[in-house]
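Morning!

This is the sequence you dropped in the shared folder:
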Amino acid sequence: MGPRMLVYLYRRRLRAHGAQELLAGFGVAVAVALLFAVTVADGSIEGSAREVVHAVIGPANLQLHARSAEGFSERGILARVERLPGVSQAAPLLEQTASVRGPGGHRSTVQIAGADLSLGLLDGLAHTIPLAAFSADGIGLSSYTAQALHLPSATPSSGSTTGGGAEPDSTETARIRAGEAGQIALELRGRVTPLPVNAVLDAAKFGALASAPVAVMGLARLQALAGLRGRVTRIIVQTRPGHEAQVRAELGALAGPGLAVAPADEDVELLHQALRPSEQSSEFFAAICALLGFLFAFNAILLTVPERRHAIADLRLLGARNAQIVRMVLFQALCLGLMASLFGLLAGYALAVGPFHQSPTYLAEAFTLGTSTVIGTGPLVLALGGGVLATCLASALTLLDLRVGRTLEAAPFVDGVSADALGRGAQMRLALAATGVLVLSSAIFELWSSLSLAALTALALVCVLAVPLALGLVLRATRALAERRQALTLLGVALISLRGSTLRSLALATTGAVALFGSGALGGARADLLQGIRGFAHSYSADADIWVNPPGAYQATSPFRPGDDVALIARIAGVRAVRSFYGGYLNLDGRRVWVIARPPGGAHELLSGEIVDGSASAASAALAAGGQIALSRQIAAARHLGVGDRIAIPTPSGNVRFRIVAITTNLAWNPGVIFLSAADYRRYWTSSAPSALSVELAPGVNAARVRAAIVRALGPASGLEVATAPERTREIDALASAGLSRLGEISTLLTIAAILALASALASAIWQRRVSLAELRLTGVTPARLRKLLLLESTLLLGAGCMTGAIVGVYGQAVIDGYLRNVTGFPIVTLTAGLRPLELLALVVAIVLVLVAVPGFLAARVPPTLALEE
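The structure's back. Tokens below.
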């Protein structure tokens, strides 16, 4: 049993049973692909954002930042920061969320950084970013943004110079075209400004920022366009070695009530927290997919166990020692696991950069995000190791024949499969075990919702344990039907085959149960989640008939200068009232929470649909009175607070204590939400700039007509978007659902994987039946009747297994709903699947039967002489 002999034996096995080995490897590859794709896609969001943040801050390790988008006056503060003895260098930065529109009408939401040369000197970009990017009249775009706007390309400019005074750059990768990349329209704070694109920067010149939706321009120019002259949003600081603690304390003494001192890369941790609930749900779904995928692989390999047991029996009769047989089995398992896992990694990578690749646009207003795919060693080791482990565990079942007391020959076989059938007693014992596991999973779910994955794993085990009894009941019912209807002779033949091949039958039925359980539970939970988000989108938009806000700012967090817009809109026929809504983001307890501030009654519909503790009417009245807030359950739970308690909020005016009047969901914004009155916002945020205008119409007025009139009144110079409440609902629904699109892709891919796993398992089982089918051909059975026999057997197995999985999947859906509601805080509508489990059952069974029609047709035409050869 040296290496050459091990290779020789495996080659012999591949020649004899290549189809079965291929199908078993397919199950492993599916599991590896799903696990690898989801883990890579999840890690890429935070990983690429980390690269972007560090590209901006360079070696800086501290920052002094404002608590609102209005920023703070840099006059005097920057000079005082630079004079601190432990500070090596400091640079001011103004960041604004805006929309840029290209010549062809394409629009992109970007984070604009206004900076001067000191930032380039600090992070090293001064040697690569051209001075044109900081010119007084233009803007520099990342290559990602330029591509999104479909800007015309041009050859590199040979005369462009870098900000550091280096020699002219003529490399093909520079992509710097001063003044030649076209012109864009900048929609910032309610006004449109045409700007020339002075630089388009790729990875060679902009690093990780090239793949992010960002833009850069001169600090003074951005301050003027935003109406924030002399103001910045943060000052990033590089300290001298060993002086970080000293400088942090000195910055704290400099900071006023509206400023905060934090690590320079604080945004990475804030993004990590913002992504955590969606990552938890994605990882939760991915873990379930991996579990189910490995169960598919396990069952697929079970179908190859009979041939492996035959080979082991032959080797034992020839005098092979147990150690030699173990070495052979593990070698073949490693070969199969490695090859299948490598193919799975390739497929998973294609999924990660394809369907699963996404930039969570719902976070784009609050964070600067990258779009690159980042692959770490963790996902590689996890996926590859899991695939090999599943293969080895399944293959190890064949080693049970090596136990002391087992005869040299393998157990009795019928058609190459163990004929040891599970009796009713064994079926009942397994069913009782399934009941016990079900009770245990229910207790886990009720007591520790954070352990819902363990509860789901237990439910998958319930499926496996319940299949023998379900299959036994189906077979007994079929036997009773066959005894009543003597003309149904095929039923009797099918029963003999199914009862004589217990291992294969149970493996196939279990595969169907696990497939339907996973697809039904995940798909149903996703439907509940989307239904909850639709309810939130409707209630959020229902507080206004028409919304006016900056383009793409559907969360109403981008302030703008309304000027005469309110008066213009109020004079339009049919408009009863125009009110200002306010909002933004605030860093609280390591979270970037969403602040919603509306005038009295302006949040009634929203509160009515999202409150989980408290009264909507009482909360509306309390908010209108001032000094009180409503906040998300996750924020309250982190501080162990409830209705009636008080919480200190770090507003731009300093810490202010508010009384909690209601607890809400997180409105699909993962970090959480705070509601307060518009008057409190203007007072403590020291800003009267609204983030949205609410237009209330007179009864019976056509909203579409008034919307068109508002657009005309604002004119083309306005950088505002006008939408009716239904249009706003669709926009918010699409935006919030974008962050959950991967859940739908996972659910869909799992259903596809389930269908393919079932089809491959059935095809493998049918291929193994060729000898018994040849024996039937010898007795005169026609190929047409054999095809009917195979169809009948497949239907019975799929029906027993898939029905079991569909029933347990409904309970699994409730478990996932509870997890999403309690752990992630998403708005959920419980059990909206309706007839979906039955529809999914019929769909999966029908497609699988169609897919196995071809191998069934070929197997039915097996030559009768095969039986004689055997």
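Headline: The radius of gyration is 33 Å.

More detail when I'm at my desk.
O.
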